[in-house]
Amino acid sequence: AERCFEQIKGFSDYGFPESHAASFALLVYISCWLKHHHPAIFACALLNSQPMGFYAPAQIIRDARQHGVKVHGVDINHSDWDCTLEGTDLRIGLRQIRGFAKERAIDLVAARNSPYTSLANLQQRTNLRIFDIEKLSLADAFGSIGLDRRQARWEARALSRETKSPLFAHTDGPQEGFEEPVQLPLMPLPEHVIADYQTLRFSLKAHPVTFLRNDFTAAKIITCTEMAKMKNRAWVRIAGLVLVRQRPGSAKGVVFMTIEDETGVANIIVWKTVKDQYNKVVMAAKLVEIYGQIQAQDNVMHLVAKKLIDRTSMLSRLAGEHPKMPASRDFH
User: Fold this and answer.
1) Mean pLDDT over all residues of the chain?
2) Closest CA to 76 of 117, 21, 26, 23
3) Which residues are 242's β-sheet partners?
4) What is the dihedral of CA 188, 134, 315, 244, to 10 degrees?
5) Fewer beta carbons under 10 A from the terminal one: N or C of the chain?
6) Using CA atoms, how far apart are residues 208 and 241, in angstroms rounded to an integer?
């Protein structure tokens, strides 16, 4: 009996992991097959399953585009609640707009028996509030009617001014005097990109670090793609948006970070001694500069951090203020 028990006990050390590995391997194979043969479908499904897992929408979309998928932005005349396919292209859904309720999206889509032609037309045909229309304008969702987010937001505020008070409820004309249409100057691209990140958590127009590259190059900060070509044990400086932080309980205080610039991503290892020295930067920075040594083996590369600098304030140059960027995905 004891011999049988010991045999069963010995099997338990590897029996469950083995069965788990087999089932997980099947899921990985299916996912890889879909990603390789149908990248648009794969990305669409992942986006519609958010929030989930390890990867944020920005990473999913970047990877899809790198694999040849054409991605179209959110739009009042083309987007459903979920992300959808337009042939082999991917259309971003209204679900990606931060703070835009599903019920409002359903209302917008249901009333879209013909294209919307203006913000006033959208308001008349739906139950959308001014708040909802402003959310759409902030997400730059009026491209199909020729309005960028700045012009759309201005016109959304004009709608608010034209809402009748009870005193004028039975009149046909506006309660305020006639106002000449105002054509605002186009919004600069850097401001558009920051606004995209604030409302959608990604941008199809550009990456924020693109506009800081000249400064980074002058400071001898290389790109993630350039780092990937460097040799093992080389010392480099890189900078990027923090996408993910991991601090596993079994890692004895080590933090693993993933950062992204306009060329790709880099994986960072922050040992406990370095983490303790730069704790605030490691745990809170949105844009970070890292000086460290490359650790590369068997086509796997990490940067072991020696020094970290919080560069989040540089993002204010792009938006003329202190932009509230989306938080990283942190796993502790």
Assistant:
1) 87
2) 117
3) 259
4) -130
5) N
6) 8
Beta strands in the chain (DSSP E): 71-72, 84-86, 89-91, 235-246, 255-260, 265-270, 287-297, 300-310, 329-331
Burial 77-115 (b: 16+ CB within 10 A, else e): bbbebbbbeeeeebbbbbbbbeebbeebbebbeeebeee
Count of helices and strands (H, E) across the chain: 13, 9
Handedness of CA 240, 245, 250, 252 (dihedral sign): positive
Which range is least confidently modeled, 72-76, 120-124, 177-181, 306-310?
Answer: 177-181
Look up tokens 């409002």; give the residue: 104
Rounded to a whole number of angstroms, the CA Rg of the chain reads 25
Tell me how many degrees the CA angle 231-235-238 measures, rounded to the nearest 5.
100
pLDDT digits (tens, 9 = 90+) for 258-296: 999 999 999 999 999 999 999 999 999 999 999 999 999
Is 64:39 a contact under the CB 8 Å cutoff?
yes
The pTM of the full predicted model, rounded to 2 decimals, is: 0.80
pLDDT digits (tens, 9 = 90+) for 100-121: 999 999 999 999 999 999 999 9
